[in-house]
Amino acid sequence: MRTMSPLPLCLLLWDLLDLTLAYLTVSIEPLPPVVVGDAVTLKCNFKTDGKMREIVWYRVTDGGTIKQKIFTFDAMFSTNFSHMENYRKREDLVYQSTVRLPEVRISDNGPYECHVGIYDRATREKVVLASGNVFLNVMAPPTSISVLAADTPAPFSRYQAQNFTLVCVVSGGKPAPLVYFKRDGEPIEATPLPEPPAGAGSWAPRNLLHRDLDDTKVPKSLAAEGEVGGGRPPVTADPPRGLAAEKGPVTETIPETVVSREFPRWVHVAEPIYYFRHTHAPVSDGTVEARATLTWTLNPQIDNEALFSCEVKHPALSMPMQSEVTLVAPKGPKITMTPTRARVGDTVRILVQGFQNEVFPEPLFTWTRVGSRLLDGSAEHDGKELVLERVPAELNGSMYRCTAQNPLGSTDTHTRLIVFENPNIPRGTEDSNGSLTSHHGFRLVLALTLTVILELT
After folding, report:
1. Taking phi first (over 0 means left), then psi (-120 to 50 degrees means alpha), and beta for anything else, what does residue 86 get?
2. Whole-number percent of the chain with pLDDT over 70
3. 341 has a pLDDT exceeding 50
4. What average pLDDT does the structure give for the chain?
5. pLDDT of 270-285, one tens digit each?
6. Cβ atoms < 10 Å from Cβ of 78
7. H or E segment at 440?
């Protein structure tokens, strides 16, 4: 019996295998990061020699556990056909399926998959599948930036150094932006502060640095003891220089000033030492809120009217985004009084409506009565408005002082209250609170009662 040579048999088996197996490769073109609002086209390229059955695009969410089918907005294919006479030569079909997102949103950020299925060459009951994936990185530029002062309103301290902190809040960006500060247009070289521990609350720049001792603030008694070498406090390790140390709940007594100066010598620092801290927290909409703080020991003499700016760099911005503030002490409060012609028994409101300049940070307002207590018996009142209810005649000519202060300075403004007679209230019938006296009130009630009795009889 004739036997078939091995070579023709191998060629025959190869031809049969070539007729039954289908060829399919899938690839998705990579995408650079895109900005919110841009139009994006996802392109899925695949090559096959089989008959197409389906093309499905998925958006993958929740870490890959959920695949949401999305529509194919555009699909096309082209055929590269071989004109060779060999009927066993396959047709290579090159397909491209595209999904177009006209205006991407942050919610579109994430992975996408393209699944392709073709019929098997041997049977249509079997489908050959292949897929590709791509990650769509959607960036969003910051939408708002603001510069605030921490721990305000705060009083002015002439003889004690104060730590001052500017807070820059940047919202709406993705990814987190780069935030930095400038003073008078020049970048600030600051020492970075460490990140807070996990789960910690809001950070406050306290207990960081030590205040330099000023010889103009040494009490006379301590100075005398120092001359003979006695009464010296124990030596302790000083924390780093630059910021004023804040003590615990124990109240520090203000030492006696030997030399009278408007500002002690320790305030005069040629170059302040700045400390910088940057944090960011994710927001539910997929963006990031960034907070940057700049802390230093405030010097009212050189920091007053200094311009500080917070600037932001972000890959979705063509130029830096910034917000500016000028540190300014309050000057010349504008005070109004209503009613302008107060009468006995009226409620008088004295209000600070503004200043001669733009003040930052927000000032602290304190009202006092010169030479006496306020109408309600208190020594002082905090707030922009002072309300005097049912003013009596005794307040005529009384003077009130409004102290407006922030860490950069303090100013006092006085106003005098003129109280006119009220024709509806007889003279001498009001007490110190502006109400009728009990004696006259009783006589009036008794007279009205007798009048009613006489009319009835």
Report:
1. beta
2. 66
3. yes
4. 76
5. 678 999 999 999 999 9
6. 8
7. helix 438-456
CB 45 within 8 A of CB 106: no
Q: Is the pLDDT of residue 202 over 70?
A: no
On whether the CB atoms of residues 352 and 384 are closer than 8 A, the answer is: yes
For residue 111, give the nearest of 46, 26, 175, 31 by alpha carbon: 31
Instruction: Kindly list the distances between the CA atom of residue 91 and the CA atoms of 101, 118, 192, in Å, as whole numbers in the listed order.
Output: 32, 14, 64
Report which residue type is found at 313.
K
Nearest to 141 by CA among 312, 363, 296: 312
**Which residues of 143-273 form beta strands (DSSP E)?**
144-149, 163-173, 178-183, 186-187, 190-192
Q: Are 337 and 349 in contact (CB under 8 A)?
A: yes
Are 405 and 411 in contact, with CB atoms under 8 Å apart?
yes
Burial of 413 (0-12, 13-18, 19+ CB in 10 A): middle
Q: Tokens 């006695």, residue?
A: 230
User: How much is the CA Rg of the chain, to the nearest whole Å?
Assistant: 41
Quick one: pLDDT at residue 81?
41
pTM summary value: 0.69
Q: Is the peptide bond before 175 cis (omega within 30 degrees of 0)?
A: yes
Residues 56 and 40: their CA atoms lie apart, in Å, by 18
Which tokens belong to 222?
Answer: 């301590």
CA–CA–CA angle 315, 316, 317 (5° rounding): 90
